[in-house]
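Quick note —
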Amino acid sequence: QLLDSLRAAGFNRLSLGMQSASEQVLAVLERRHTPGRAVAAVWEAEAAGFSNINLDLIYGTPGETMAQWQDSLDAALAVRPTHLSAYALTLEPHTALARRIAAAVVPPVDEDDLADKYLVAEKTLVAAGLTNYEVSNWSLPGYECRHNMAYWLGEDWWGAGPGAHSHVAGQRWWNARSPRRWAELLADGHYPSEGAEVLDATAQHTERVLLRLRLASGLPLRWLPDTAEVAELVAGYLKNGLVSVGDNLVLTPPGRLLADRIALELLST
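Predicted structure written out below.
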């Protein structure tokens, strides 16, 4: 019923938080859904008329084996999604999982394990016909997420709902995160914004470098200072197989593992 209503209202893309096909991994992540529920939801969405469907996966959960990660990738691909996002587990402070790791109840996140699982994802998804167009995102040709591309290319977008961010004409603002607070503001006749900012030229450049480097199209070299220091950095990346270079600096799969470090090094020159 909900999916039918969404499709009838004009929504044409659906993103589902699958995270994992392992009951153990979902339990560590404290997710409420069961293995297979997201996969079943894909079939339900297709029956409602959706043909553009993304699945979100998380890898590197403490205790997750490589076999469990491979099973999650295979389960996601079995429903032929047009788009798949795979994110390394990021620990947020003050969460239950962060507290359990600090108390040694579960093992810490292993950076080498994250890297190995990312490369397995790249190999598996590319073999299934999906193309990596942003570090954490793969899609069939023509199914790249237009909404997220607007983020990464610095274009304008307008977000709706609790916690949604918007960016129009150089100004960024964000809505109240609490659904209750968001609804109260609207009910009182107020726009539900909780804060705003205008980025200066330095901040805009920093964001452009950080985000464009993550895209398969790469970072235009003309955006970087024409200095010996930059040339030396790029030469080092090439020697270590982290990038390819033409008009743009493009990360290779191993380079994607170090995307943030490379961006910070380039920005520090």
